[in-house]
Each structure stands twice: as structure tokens, then as C-alpha cells.
Design brief:
The chain has 13 helices and 13 strands. It is α/β, with parallel strands linked by helices. Helix 2 links the parallel strand 2 and strand 3.
């Protein structure tokens, strides 16, 4: 089953844990753009095929220090660029619910590994939706935290304006526990949010009807649980994605400019196409996008004075089949249509499983978004929803059971 999913880049030798901690007994994996001492840190790219990190990234040290056992680095879209994760030098990871389909991206290996049971917890990175999209596609929980709350040292950059590191797990509880460790903050209970917002219009009305119905079902459940649900306006959401692209792709081109001049053939074609987009973005375009970001954030601050959490779909379409002929930029724009706008926001977004598509049987996710540094509101709402539903307890048709071999790296199917 692991060969079919293609989730792992490197198996990590066990490291003795000095003391029990809040994550003792749990296993975790990290997206392979996050440095792990002594093993390859490749970013899914031929450029870094033999790169071995000297030290653990701070986020890895924190999870290990809390007692969790790191067992693997996980496959991803090359340099964390892409929404399907198929543009990896290691070959694209696949979705455990249907290995013909993508796991989302760019943290595709992280989402697939959690869903399949290879790890209890995984770290991903999210610039435009790279945690939330695979969380939705794989039927797990994934948090894009407020930028700046979690240390990104030792994480290969996409864009300093947008890069975040966040946890993925099957439950909101475990995501919250990992978040507390990653931020090194004592847990402080938050009063239960009372008002949830549902946008009258968010980005586009062209959302798969089954996805819209699943998210509407989540909203009804939350209403039944006593949350007040009101309609809200989200001004400028239609143009937010374009402004994220402008800022992110311009940064991307700068990060990889030297590689473009050295040997661009080492890039995966889909990666190269995205990077080249950034070469044509000028300073005037960037200034316009930065002004738009400030305006969008100002609008959202007013929204979060009225409501505490906003509910939107994560993906607008069903999880697609892996298709190398699909137009790269069009597919990226469509799959990230509802996640990119929240990347322009200064606060956190949590993707939670809310059902399965009646045609394909693939998972469906909804995004919960809150004001800056109010992750606690998301955990409270998400936990209440999971306590009342069982979507997060469902398992793929074939999951993975790890057993101890000589190298600690063997897996076998579990039906």
C-alpha cells in the first residue's frame, strides 16, 4: 500500500526520547521541505536530491521534545509549489481513498500519511492552501495558523509573506495539542464562540453542488449545537486570489532565480511553469497587490467584529484524478480558488472533514476562519462539530499498519 501511495521520501531512524511529554506515544512525519538532521531534505526536487540537513528545524525539535516519535519525511510538490503534489522528483503521492486521485498539495504526502494511518500527526506548510487542500482531499484536519505564530526557520521558503507551518491529524483535538507544542504556549480555554458567519457570496458561485450541500450540512449542525449563524459579506474576495498569486509568484521567481539561470531542466515541468510566471511580475504589480491586501485585511477586521468564525468550503470541486495532461495553471487556480483568499488574511484557517462526495466517495472539507491569533475559536467550533459527527472517524478502504522491523521502516496493509 505504501508503494501505491508514494508518501515517504526518507524513513527516519528512531531517536531516544529524554522524557515523556504531551505527545508521548504518538508518531509524526514532516513534509520534506522541513529540515530533519541526518536524513535527506529534498523538497521533492532533483536540485536537492542529496541534501542532508545538519540540524532539526525548530518545529521538529518541539514535537520531538514533546515526546512524539518522528518516523518519516513525506513527499510533496516540488519546492512546495503545486496543488496536486504530482510534480515531485520522487513521483507524485496518491490519495489513500482512491490511489488514482491526487491527495491535494503541496503537502500531499502529509495528508495521505495521516489519512492512511502511517503517522498520527504530520507537519505541512501552507502558503496558498497547501495544508488545507490536502486535508480536505484526504479527509483529515489541517491548520494554517496565523502567520508568524510558528517558527519557520529550517523550512525552505516559497514566499516570506505567506509561508506558514501547521499540523495535520485526524482530529481537531490532536491538531490543537500539536499547535500548543509548536507555539510553546500554555493552553488557555477560550469562551465558546457564539456567532458564526456564512458568506452571502465567497469568490465564486461555481461550487460543486455536493460540496455546497456538505458545507451547508455542517452549518446546520453547528446551528443545532447552539451557535448563532448569520450571513456576512466578504468584500473583495473575488480578486483576492489574483493578488496572492502576484505576491507569491514574484517571491517564488526570486527564490529560484539562480536555479533558472543554472539548469532549469532539473525542475519538474509544472514547477518551472509556475516559477516563470513570477518573472513577468513587476514592482508596480506588487505595490498594487500589497495595497489590495491591506484593504482586504481591513475589511476582514470589520467582519470579525461581527462574527467570530467564518465557514466556507475548502475545495470548490471534487478531488481530481491524477492527470498529467491537465493544464497546470488552470488546475491550480481552480483547486485553490477558495483557499488562496484566506492566505491574504492575517488570521488562521482550519480545514475539517464534513462529508463524502456522493459520486466519487472522496472526502469533502470545510474551512473555519477566525481573526488574527484566534486559533482557539477554530478549535472550539471544530471540536464541537466533531463531537456531534463521525466524518473524521471514517478510514480509507486500505490503511497502513506500521510494525517494527530492523530499520523501523516497514509497513503493511490493514483492511
Amino acid at each position: 500500500m505504501e508503494d501505491r501511495l508514494n508518501t515517504v521520501i526518507s524513513w527516519v531512524p528512531p531517536v531516544p526520547t529524554a522524557r515523556p511529554g504531551p505527545l508521548a506515544g504518538l508518531t509524526f512525519g514532516v513534509k520534506d521541505n522541513i529540515e530533519v538532521a541526518g536524513v535527506r531534505s529534498t523538497c521533492g526536487s532533483a536540485f536537492l536530491a542529496d541534501n542532508v540537513a545538519d540540524a532539526d528545524a525548530p518545529v521538529v525539535r518541539r514535537l520531538r521534545g514533546a515526546g512524539a516519535e518522528l518516523i518519516a519525511t513525506l513527499n510533496l510538490a516540488e519546492f512546495a509549489i503545486g496543488v496536486t503534489s504530482q510534480n515531485s522528483a520522487a513521483g507524485g503521492p496518491r490519495n489513500p481513498w482512491d490511489p488514482r486521485r491526487v491527495p491535494g498539495g503541496s503537502s500531499g504526502g502529509s495528508g495521505a500519511a495521516v489519512a492512511a494511518g502511517l503517522v498520527d500527526l504530520a507537519l505541512g506548510t501552507d502558503s496558498g492552501g497547501s495544508i488545507r487542500l490536502p486535508a480536505s482531499a484526504c479527509g483529515v484536519v489541517g491548520l494554517r495558523p496565523s502567520p508568524g505564530l510558528i517558527d519557520v526557520t529550517g523550512v525552505y521558503p516559497v514566499s516570506a509573506d505567506f509561508d506558514t507551518v501547521g499540523p495535520m491529524a485526524r482530529t481537531v483535538d490532536l491538531v490543537e495539542r500539536a499547535f500548543d507544542v509548536l507555539t510553546d504556549r500554555p493552553h488557555r480555554p477560550r469562551p465558546r464562540p457564539s456567532v458564526l458567519g456564512v458568506p452571502r457570496h465567497f469568490v465564486t458561485d461555481d461550487v460543486d453542488p455536493a460540496i455546497r450541500a456538505a458545507v451547508d450540512g455542517m452549518v446546520r449542525t453547528l446551528g443545532d449545537l447552539g451557535f448563532e449563524v448569520v450571513e456576512v459579506d466578504l468584500p473583495r474576495s473575488e480578486t483576492a486570489q489574483a493578488h496572492v498569486y502576484t505576491l507569491l509568484y514574484a517571491d517564488l521567481a526570486e527564490v529560484h532565480r539562480d536555479r533558472l539561470g543554472a539548469d532549469p531542466t532539473l525542475f519538474q515541468p509544472a514547477t518551472l511553469e509556475r516559477i516563470r510566471v513570477g518573472l513577468d511580475i513587476g514592482s508596480a504589480d506588487r505595490r498594487e497587490a500589497m495595497v489590495a491586501r491591506s484593504e482586504f485585511r481591513a475589511d476582514l477586521r470589520r467582519v470579525f467584529e461581527e462574527v467570530e468564525v467564518v465557514v466556507t468550503p475548502t475545495l470548490p470541486v471534487d478531488v481530481p484524478l491524477a492527470d498529467e495532461s491537465a493544464p497546470v495553471l488552470q488546475q491550480s487556480a481552480r483547486m485553490g480558488q477558495l483557499s488562496y483568499p484566506w492566505s491574504l488574511h492575517a488570521g488562521p484557517t482550519l480545514s475539517v472533514p464534513v462529508g463524502f462526495h456522493p459520486s466519487s466517495g472522496m472526502p469533502i472539507g470545510a474551512q473555519l476562519t477566525a481573526a488574527l491569533a484566534d486559533e482557539a475559536a477554530l478549535f472550539t467550533v471544530g471540536r464541537a462539530y466533531q463531537d456531534a459527527t463521525d466524518w473524521h472517524t471514517r478510514r480509507p478502504p486500505v490503511s497502513i499498519e506500521r510494525f517494527a522491523g530492523d530499520d523501523g521502516a516497514e509497513v503493511r496493509p490493514r483492511r
